[in-house]
Automatic annotation (TrEMBL):
PROSITE patterns: FE2OG_OXY. Pfam families: 2OG-FeII_Oxy, DIOX_N. GO terms for molecular function: dioxygenase activity; metal ion binding. It comes from Populus trichocarpa. Belongs to the iron/ascorbate-dependent oxidoreductase family. InterPro entries: DIOX_N, IPNS-like_FE2OG_OXY, IPNS-like_sf, Oxoglu/Fe-dep_dioxygenase_dom. It comes from the Eukaryota. The keyword Iron applies. Keywords: Iron, Metal-binding, Oxidoreductase. This is Fe2OG dioxygenase domain-containing protein. Residues 186-292 form the Fe2OG dioxygenase domain.
Length: 341
């Protein structure tokens, strides 16, 4: 992995900060062995990598960013009309999420918007957490907004499926291992639009755009603008922790592994700690969280255990695990009900 010091000193390139340039996985490459090798190296090293030539058009990605910005520019009163519900669909205001309570003085300095699997209210699945109809801004206020997001959602899933097949090969599994109905056959995927206002983070005083955390699921696809902010810590047990900026790469996805893949792989692959620091500029990003099916039983993969290396975690039903993680990090919705009453 290549590293260099950024000494530009401009608004988007933080001076004197170490910047990590990640391995690039080219989804158009015919050399699958090289792709597997590069991905495996990244998963063993830091759990982050770029994905390029992924097949999603530049026009669509730009349109999503444009529509993303239009929503967050709305007055707060309009955004609160589509406030996050108990199914985790809709708008999350500033400070709604607290990812690192031991080090933050308040919640994350960011706004968000959740979009999930579209399930009608009369569908039996809608009885489960995270399944149900989406919450959409009025088409009169944001014409074309819903259409853009509904186009992006399945295209991003196809990119994710291609990446996960390479991950399976890197774990000495069949390429279609994660395509099983109980894993990614009916995945619990969440798209989250994000805006970091022009706040300057101050870690010494517990102020962050997003506190230090690991993601929960299988993998995350992150599209970003050209503003620096994302940092990773390769060794979460080190004291003091060493943080490195991840350089934005136009047109690419930054992909990171989630806790479930670390659990599946018996800690062979890393779910890496990361955070976001604001530098005074507005920053927009689009996170696509690829989660297994709600009822998926996550247990150690057969290729990742042995008599000398037994499973480190007990089996867990993914939906139960995910629900608890969201409960631990998001404000109780009753707080908003009291404010609006």
């Amino acid at each position: 992995m290549e590293k260099k010091q950024s000494g530009t000193g401009n608004a988007t390139g933080p001076a004197t900060k170490e910047v990590s340039f990640l391995n690039r996985i080219d989804l158009s490459s015919p050399d699958i062995h090289q792709s597997v090798s590069l991905l495996k190296q990244a998963c063993l090293d830091c759990g982050f990598f770029y994905v390029i030539n992924h097949g999603m058009s530049e026009e669509l990605m730009e349109e999503v960013f444009e529509q993303n910005k239009k929503f967050f520019e709305l007055p707060l009163s309009e955004k609160m009309k589509v406030l996050r519900n108990e199914k985790h669909r809709g708008y999350t205001p500033l400070f709604d999420e607290l990812l690192d309570p031991d080090n933050q003085v308040h919640g994350d300095y960011k706004e968000g918007y959740y979009i999930g699997v579209e399930v009608p209210e009369d569908d039996p699945k809608a009885e489960k957490p995270f399944y149900g109809p989406n919450v959409w801004p009025s088409d009169d206020i944001l014409p074309g907004w819903r259409h853009t997001m509904e186009k992006y959602y399945p295209e991003a899933l196809e990119v994710a499926r291609a990446i996960v097949r390479i991950i399976a090969l890197a774990l000495d599994l069949e390429a279609d291992f994660f395509d099983k109905p109980e894993i990614l056959g009916q995945p619990l995927v969440l798209l989250r639009l994000l805006k970091y206002p022009g706040q300057i983070s101050d870690p010494s005083n517990g102020l962050y755009g997003a506190g230090a955390h690991t993601d929960y699921g299988l993998i995350t696809l992150l599209a970003t603008d050209d503003v620096y902010g994302l940092q990773i810590c390769k060794d979460k047990d080190a004291q003091p922790r060493v943080w490195e900026f991840i350089a934005p790469l136009k047109g690419a996805f930054i992909v990171n592994l989630g806790d479930m893949l670390e659990r599946w792989s018996n800690c062979l692959f890393k779910s890496t700690l990361h955070r976001v620091l604001g530098n005074g500029q507005e920053r927009y990003s689009i996170a696509y969280f690829v989660e297994p099916s709600y009822d998926c039983l996550v247990e150690c993969l057969p290729t990742c255990k042995s008599e000398k290396n037994p499973p480190k975690f007990p089996p867990v039903i993914y939906g139960d695990y995910l629900g608890q993680r969201y409960k631990d990090t998001h404000i109780d919705l009753n707080v908003y009900n009291k404010l609006q009453s």
